Amino acid sequence: MTFLIYFALIIIIPLWAQFRVKGAYKKYSQVSSSSQMRGAEVARRILDSNGLFHVGVEETRGHLTDHYDPRSKTVRLSSQNYHGHSVAAAAIAAHEVGHAIQDEEAYAFLRFRHALVPVANLGSNFSWILILIGIFAQLSGLLLLGIIFMAAAVLFQVVTLPVEFNASNRAMDQVVSMGIIRNDEEKETKKVLNAAALTYVAAAAVAVLELVRLVLIYTGMQSED
């Protein structure tokens, strides 16, 4: 029964987060911002006001594929947000610019996350191979090695949380201080940003739960030896 509850949680939590972000985005992508600025214009204006003239703004394919690329110093916005005049488009554009500002200021958590990328990728790719072999072959040492690799990937997801929340806070400060949104639009903008942040919270929560479960399996194997 405990395992059923556990697996229900790791399935329901991400689905709930996705439902929230899609619902908030769908609702507020139909609400025009008072400034009537396109997402691309919002991004460009905030970048320029912070002296980030070297950071580009490009359109990218897909739905909610918006991101900041620190390698090419480019804010990439999905077509709907690049061309859209909505509150949602302004919020997401400002959020991605928030990451560009973090990069320019060498924000500590962002630098730490970048440093974790190689080991996190290694952990994501190889941890489950070691874990499964360790469990089925009853090799606790191999299982422990897999858990260590997985812990690095989990740490990456946990460190992502302050990075994302800080970018959202920066986004709110920018759009309000620059008059891109009005006071009565702040609540709507926050709902979009908070819903998007939930996806990262859900991913981190599921990753931590899975790590704890594997540690319990390992300690159980150790007690049997």
Automatic annotation (TrEMBL):
<keyword id="KW-0472">Membrane</keyword>
<feature type="transmembrane region" description="Helical">
    <location>
        <begin position="192"/>
        <end position="218"/>
    </location>
</feature>
<keyword id="KW-0812">Transmembrane</keyword>
<dbReference type="InterPro" id="IPR007395">
    <property type="entry name" value="Zn_peptidase_2"/>
</dbReference>
<dbReference type="Pfam" id="PF04298">
    <property type="entry name" value="Zn_peptidase_2"/>
</dbReference>
<protein>
    <submittedName>
        <fullName>Zinc metallopeptidase</fullName>
    </submittedName>
</protein>
<feature type="transmembrane region" description="Helical">
    <location>
        <begin position="126"/>
        <end position="156"/>
    </location>
</feature>
<keyword id="KW-1133">Transmembrane helix</keyword>
